[in-house]
Design goal:
Order of helices and strands: EHHEEEEEHEHEEEEEEHHHEEH
Number of strands: 15
Low-confidence stretches: 1-8
Mean pLDDT: 87
Shape: globular
Length: 315
């Protein structure tokens, strides 16, 4: 094991059923998406990742309930992120973390075909120290067309603590959403989610997927739609969108899980042209990773959702 990392905080979690039987580097990258697969592989080779207290090799196969221990390095040099001057709305910052209010139409991190114009590019421009952190310090993500609050760590200490908080469901995330259909009572959707069997760009409810819990509360009913306050208890890809589609109330504007309903149910030109899921991450509650003080942040609805609500009120 690398002696340089012995004093750092460790990250521990249990391999889920969805990742059992996968190669170690694949399984760990899937379970802990904050770290890239190349970084996971590097750490396995250096002895910075243990399985049930023992060293492992990248091609070892993992079983359900295996205990994974990650001991991150003080300085992590992931893929090169090109600093880029991008307008970012910083809602909060101190020496350990940043919270931004993400705008619509921007993805979190460079990927195939998207090496520029991402949050990561803009973040390393404003905060150069983020170059040394996995995912440029991003603790969680929002879909490209979902707006709202995102937490970014500024050093490996706060990154490690915040990742643990996220895994332990200690970071409370609240959303405002606008769905098709009249929802008359509050409810909690407790349905597992995994990759869609035939369309790999989509997610779906699947009995063999990862646990996913979405709690929603009715704020207001319109003529054919509903404004909701949503609390996430887990953080699966597309979770709110998948769960509301599963319940029969897809989000207005959702081009992946609800676009057919948009065109069928609405004659209003504005609604037909509203091409992004009507979803905004408006509130965060969590403990500061080092001071342990409570942090509560709220952001107002972006203009397009304010305009959408006016239209819905006058349908």
């Amino acid at each position: 094991m690398n002696d340089e990392v012995l004093n750092n905080d460790i990250i521990e979690y249990i391999i889920s059923e969805e990742s059992k039987g996968l190669r170690a580097d694949l399984a760990i990258a899937q379970e802990n998406q904050q770290f890239s697969r190349s970084l996971i592989k590097k750490w396995i080779n250096k002895g910075n990742i243990l399985i049930n207290g023992n060293t492992l090799k990248p091609r070892d196969t993992l079983a359900e309930n295996d205990k994974i221990t990650i001991i991150p390095e003080e300085n992590i040099n992931p893929e090169e992120i090109i600093p880029e001057k991008i307008q970012l709305n910083v809602e909060y910052q101190d020496q350990d973390l940043i919270v931004i209010n993400k705008q619509c139409g921007i993805i979190a991190h460079p990927a195939a075909g998207n090496h520029k114009g991402t949050l990561a590019n803009g973040l390393v421009y404003l905060f150069p120290e983020l170059k040394n952190l996995p995912r440029s310090g991003l603790i969680h993500r929002l879909d490209k067309d979902t707006t709202g609050l995102l937490i970014i760590a500024r050093n490996i200490k706060s990154y490690t603590v915040l990742v643990k908080q996220m895994q332990n469901r200690e970071i409370k995330k609240f959303y405002i959403a606008y769905s098709h259909g009249l929802i008359m009572k509050n409810d909690t959707v407790h349905q597992p989610i995994s990759r869609h069997k035939t369309d790999r760009k989509k997610m779906s409810v699947n009995a063999n997927g990862k646990e996913a819990i979405t709690e929603y509360e009715v704020i207001k009913n319109f003529k054919k739609s509903t404004k909701l306050k949503i609390k996430l208890h887990t953080g699966r890809t597309h979770q709110i969108r998948v769960h509301m589609h599963f319940k029969g109330y897809p989000l207005i504007g959702d081009q992946t899980y609800g676009s057919k309903m948009t065109s069928i149910e609405n004659n209003n030109d504005y609604l037909k042209k509203f091409k992004r899921q009507a979803l905004h991450a408006y509130k965060l509650e969590f403990d500061h990773p080092l001071t342990k003080l409570k942090i509560k942040l709220e952001s107002k609805l972006p203009k397009d959702l304010q305009d959408l609500e006016k239209i819905l009120e006058n349908e």
